Task: structure prediction
Amino acid sequence: MRNLAPESEHFQHFFEEVREDFWEGLYRRTKEAWKKFFDAESERDRDRYCGLGWYERGNESKTDYRNGYYERDWVTRFGTIRLRIARTRGKNFLPKGLRRFQRRADEMSLLIREAFLRGISTRQVGRVVALLTEEPVSAQTVSQLTRDLDGAVQEFHRAPLGDNWKFLFLDGVSLKVRGVAGRKRVHMLVAYGIKPDGTRQLLAFMRSQGESQTAWEGFLENLYQRGLEGDDLRLIVTDGCPGLAGALQQIYPRVAHQRCWVHKMRNLVEGTRKRDRDEVKEAAQAIYTASSRKQAEMAFRALKLRWRKEYPALVKRLEKDLPQLLAFFTLPQPLWKKLRTTNVIERCFVEVRRRTRPMVCFVNVKSVDRIIFSIFNRFNLEWKHKRTLRAFTQAA
Result:
């Protein structure tokens, strides 16, 4: 059989060369065409304003005359175009497609902002954009462009929520912020809601110094004031934070409270000796994987009988928390796996950490709001156009 590898390799090399030449030539010609168009547009506007052809003399009452040109760089997707802007002694004639002081096309500003919101640091954004536009972009410029998001952030915080949410997940994530006294941690309190038809949405976030009861009360009060009064809420799922549990009693006292089993299992395992961990873990898993609440309570009694002498404090805390750990059993069985943990909101935090890791730490708290809003808004837009959560739709 004849070997076709050399011919295939030769063809691939030829194809790459043709493609590179084609796109390079197309971009170059497009760039030249834009330059000619804007240069001519500026000159036409100037001549129309003057009302005279070249070398024509006006009357003595005319106060403005042609005054040559000046050059101005305009950054586009095709690279940086140096434009020739016509002017008179008292006026400049920017083409209609440009605005005063605008140095880059709107689409390039959008590219810079999106690159930053994708988790690329301000310095790296400048380098990436320079490869495309031949124009270096400073970190200060990137920061300035991202400030345009402040209005959208405020609108997100004020948007009405309505009272048609059936399940509410609450948790917090911590991020580093660069302050005057050095780096410090800022906590973000987050709410995630699910409607009866399976529609989901990240409802709100708020900066705080920690997860105290006062902080959570302020956050939940904001949800309440924006319309989430809790009349239709069936269950609120949390990570077990004591401050949050206290705040729920103040704002949503009539709604059942479910504590996350993932967080509880972590506490149980860490509180035992290494040789006992597997056995304790298996006994605890038998509680939340039981086929009914009655079976779950029987599994707890078996755990208590086996470990109360070796770990009395651990067993006592588990018994105290058991009502909130078993609250999910009152809901339809297809939902149990989804409602016994805060995994749905923790998955969002994974994306937050992934996006923010390249930034090391934020320069100020407003930059925290911008990046969190961007991530959450992207999630909400994706979920809006995707199918709803099947398990919740079927159980509706």
Remarks:
- The CA atoms of residues 47 and 111 lie 36 Å apart.
- The radius of gyration is 31 Å.
- The chain has three domains: 33-49+64-102, 104-158, 161-395.
- The chain is about 50% helix and 15% strand.
